[in-house]
Design goal:
Length: about 210
């Protein structure tokens, strides 16, 4: 199991939130988000996972290299590392005795790419919610993530991953009949703001009702 930052670990967690950072970052980069979520969900384990490989950028970590990445080869890079991503989720679920029904995957940038892609590359259901922050699919999704709600949150000023990728993915999933939402945040770049935190809290509180 790859290293991780444990932000909250109740003795008997009712839910597991796994967070996945962007390329060149560390688990600490999502600490503020995790701490905010932990305050609202005290019965929830909140874990920020470290990607397994050293980043090509010279600092931080990555799931796959973005050197030379193109629209044509991105999916192959994701597929190659996906078994490690899935194993990480399973390991934490087993460690904390939490099922997919009570697991939430939150990814930022490359972390979101991995979380989203897990709903298409494998038939196995891994989570009740996948929350994409500044993320995208490699290709337009073609199947419904059974039993998994997919939420897209994206800044309209993102210079790294254009928000149109998220909007197009949302539209495709919606047309397939998936449970999905799309929120475009005004004046937000490739980062996370408090509005997104509040939206995530609302998603999860609504699912508890």
């Amino acid at each position: 199991m790859t290293p991780a930052l444990i932000l909250q670990r109740p003795s008997d967690p009712k839910r597991l939130i796994l967070m996945f950072h962007g390329v060149g970052a560390t688990p600490q980069s999502l600490a503020s988000l995790g701490e905010n979520l932990a305050k609202h969900f005290t019965d929830t384990a909140v874990i920020s996972v470290q990607a397994p490989d050293d980043s090509d950028f010279g600092e931080g970590f990555q799931w796959f290299s973005v050197q030379g990445v193109t629209e044509e080869n991105r999916l192959a890079k994701i597929q190659a590392t996906m078994p490690r991503f899935m194993d990480t989720i399973r390991a934490w679920q087993q460690e904390l005795s939490v099922t997919a029904d009570n697991t939430v995957l939150i990814g930022f940038s490359q972390g979101a790419i991995m979380a989203l892609s897990s709903t298409q590359i494998h038939d196995e259901r891994m989570a009740s919610h996948v929350i994409s922050l500044s993320g995208r699919f490699a290709n337009t999704p073609g199947t419904v993530p059974l039993g998994t709600k997919v939420h897209f949150l994206h800044g309209d000023q993102d210079p790294v991953i254009a928000h149109q990728f998220a909007q197009q993915a949302y539209t495709a999933l919606h047309e397939l009949g998936a449970e999905t939402t799309y929120d475009l945040l005004p004046n937000l770049g490739h980062s996370i703001n408090q509005i997104e935190v509040d939206l995530i809290v609302n998603y999860l509180q609504s699912s508890d009702e």
